[in-house]
Amino acid sequence: MKAFYSFLAVIVLILVAVIGGSIANLHFFFGIIIPYVAFVLFVGGFIYRIIKWGRSPVPYRIPTTCGQQKSLPWIKQAKIENPTSALGVIVRMASEVLLFRSLFRNTKTELREGENGPQLAYGSAKWLWLGSLVFHWSFLIIIIRHLRFFLEPIPVALQLVDSVDSMLQIGLPQIYITDLLFLAAITFLFLRRVCVPRIKYISLPADYFPLLLIFGIAVSGILMRYFDKVDLISVKELALGIATLHPVLPSDIGAIFYVHLFLICCLFVYFPTSKLMHMGGIFMSPTRNMISNNRMVRHINPWNHAVEVHSYAEYEDEFREKMKKAGIPVEKE
Amino acid sequence: MAKYKLPKPGELSSSINYNPPAKDWMDIPVEFKPATYPAAAKEKDLLTVGFPNAHQWTPEDEDWNLPDGWEDTVIKGIEERLSKYRSFKLFMDVCVRCGACADKCHFYIGTGDPKNMPVVRAELLRSVYKRYFTKAGKVLGRLAGARDLDADVLKEWWYYFFQCTECRRCSVFCPYGIDTAELTIMGRELLNLLGLNINWIAGPVAACYSKGNHLGIEPHALKSNIELMIDDIEDITGIRVNPTFNRKGAEILFVTPSGDYMGEPGIYTCMGYLMLFHELGLDYTWSTYASEGGNFGFFTSNDMAKRLNSKIYAEAKRLGVKWILGGECGHMWRVLNQYMDTWNGPADFLEVPVSPITGTRFENAKSTKMVHITEFTADLIKHNKLKLDPSRNDHLRVTFHDSCNPARGMGLFDEPRYVIKSVCNNFFEMPENTIREKTFCCGSGSGLNATENMEERMRGGFPRANAVKYVHDKHGVNMLANICAVDRAAFPALMDYWVPGVGVTGTHELVANALVMKGEKERTTNLRGEDLPGKEGNE
């Protein structure tokens, strides 16, 4: 049901885009106005969310230590999993952001029949890690590839990415490896939400919606590259115009392009309001981005207010006679 | 409550079902199943520490006697905490519900209750956050995963935030490092605004505040407890150790959890400290005022934790010691490592700890000036300062349980292992996915070590016990070593239930048994009065 609502929402968005794409009078709105608005909302929203998080202090230094601490010189410290230097934290964060280190640890808990009732076993579970990694990396490469629409001349590095990505040299235009991987990964991430009972149980519309939206973006993109081919010269003209703040509306790009563009705009607008902000959030996670040098350097809590304590003097007043009797030294005889 | 009987282990593990129920979790009201929750806090204990809205109630009551306007108190409480803790705000926002944490929680593994999945435990709070603090939640309501705060939600919070031991295992696996402990801490702080603590936390907190330790042992009684241990040590070794209390001018203040003062097997660990320090001729003192290393305030609110923790530095200053040595305890070391200096530092009246025996300077503790006893002892052994006879522990086949907090809030892994391997000849690790940073909780941490919630504890401890059983079956392991007073208190029941035949010991009990002291008589028994290997029937 939750997946269905999300599906419905994406369908509605596609219909809106189809209407926008098929009525020429609306092209200016859908081709230029909405992209600008979406871009501004994305960048503004993203920054707003980061600032909002940043305004709350980090009162305590609470890294999750996933390896041996630095203690005695002959005990080998886990310099990345329990970092005591900025470099260690940078490597730790890089491995989280670029390689999904923590997700790589994933295991699968199973109950197996034992002699006296079920017993626990833990198996390897790398599919989520692999699926997510493929999803995010293909997405990134696809976005980088798209820069060719916004740049003239196209930088050599971009051309290189393009040629590596299409090195299979199948079809015309040549199929991008990342397109295939991207579709496969989204399908996997979606299917596990629908098919794995436990994951289905925890999933919300807010989990299905972005997957379906991105799926829509990918499919519309693939359709217009390989099947319902659009005029790429016109697309580039529009993209360059938008990028250089001199937007011009080329005639007749094709309705499918407007679907692709509109869904991207929707993703842009939706992004800062949603869980997709994990993209920015991961950099701010105190359990991962802090140096684990708690006993070496004092961490300051900006709101470290005074609290009421039970002082030694009060304690001694209460127990003085008992202490004296037991031969425990006291301050006041 | 009807008389409750704990099901047999096989029955209990057979009852675990990981298939989620048909109904959405929001539509399943919390059910207070017998023996799965601790008793409510007593009014008098909350009054001792001046907590708001202290009142008598029980979880089974339909009406919890909540104060007027309690919803407002909670919402304002959330707002205040969002502005104070980036962790709270961020963790409310960035979860993508990928499910990596779902089967990492010992309570989920032991119950199959979906609300024990860390992601859902967070959603219990997140759903309310969304409703009152996000536009999507305000407009879309349930469709955005938001819900109103009402008395049932509050009861659900109480049940599930006291069914989390703040062990942080989920945070190891979360791709964003979302730490459920942070959320449980916030959840419990909010509940405490309404007087909704549990007895097993509020009682020790009140005792610690007024008497110096969780058990409420008064100064003279503390001294006599330790004197009893001194007598036992003399019987076993022929040596009379001579500790001091509240002594000004000592070089070192020693602070340990009060679980070590009373009850087995904690007292044997305590005897271990006494014997080791005597053998070294350490210039140290105990304190009756700062007689608690543990901190149940930490399971209540960060302010309460700070109030209790303040005694350690205050006492170190009053006594004029140079540095502080800390005993074997789990959450105590999370607090000492990650919080104490921030709350009650800087400890500029102390010196960077230097071992008077080896001269090792503990640079890793140069700001807090507090050293973990296994760091201290590992250093002694490495420098050959102790005469050890590990064969005295030859009847033991030992495994080591990494306590959650020293593991994931500190990274203390190899020090205790080095010490144990130096004093025991038979050491076996539990499976890789159940040790070190992936260690499983005893199921009774963060104040849940009561008796009325025994099924909760046995279920929560199931993954740990299961791993012990593995090495028990495979290697004949018969002793579970640890560095935590709650472990020593909780594991005996857990082992008796799941893995009968496995004992529980602190690390310094093993050290003391192997320690050959100067001028000792020939030992025939260990600290527990059991015959040493090869000394059977020598009496």
Automatic annotation (TrEMBL), chain A:
Topology versus the membrane: Multi-pass membrane protein
Provide a GO biological process annotation: anaerobic electron transport chain
Name the UniProt record assigns to this protein: Nitrate reductase gamma subunit
Q: Which Gene3D superfamilies match?
A: Transmembrane di-heme cytochromes, Chain C
Mind telling me which InterPro entries this protein's record contains?
DsrM (IPR047660), Heme-iron_electron_transfer (IPR051936), NarG-like_domain (IPR023234), NarG-like_sf (IPR036197)
Keywords assigned by UniProt, alphabetized: Cell membrane, Electron transport, Membrane, Oxidoreductase, Transmembrane, Transmembrane helix, Transport
Q: Which SUPFAM superfamilies match?
A: Respiratory nitrate reductase 1 gamma chain
Predominant location category: membrane
Any one GO CC term of this protein is: plasma membrane
Membrane-spanning residues: 7-26, 32-51, 127-147, 175-196, 208-227, 253-271
The record's subcellular locations are: Cell membrane
Q: Which GO terms describe its molecular function?
A: electron transfer activity; heme binding; nitrate reductase activity
Name all NarG-like domain ranges. Answer: 100-279
Q: Which domain of life is it from?
A: Bacteria
From TrEMBL, chain B:
PANTHER family xref list: FUMARATE REDUCTASE IRON-SULFUR SUBUNIT, HETERODISULFIDE REDUCTASE
User: What PROSITE patterns does this protein's entry cite?
Assistant: 4FE4S_FER_1 (PS00198), 4FE4S_FER_2 (PS51379)
Descriptive protein name: Succinate dehydrogenase/fumarate reductase iron-sulfur subunit
UniProt keywords, alphabetically: 4Fe-4S, Electron transport, Iron, Iron-sulfur, Metal-binding, Transport
Entry's Gene Ontology molecular function annotations: 4 iron, 4 sulfur cluster binding; metal ion binding; oxidoreductase activity
The answer to keyword Transit peptide applying to this record is: no
Locate the 4Fe-4S ferredoxin-type domain: which residues? Answer: 86-115, 155-184
Q: Which InterPro entries match?
A: 4Fe4S_Fe-S-bd (IPR017896), 4Fe4S_Fe_S_CS (IPR017900), Cys_rich_dom (IPR004017), Helical_ferredxn (IPR009051)
Q: Does the keyword Electron transport apply?
A: yes
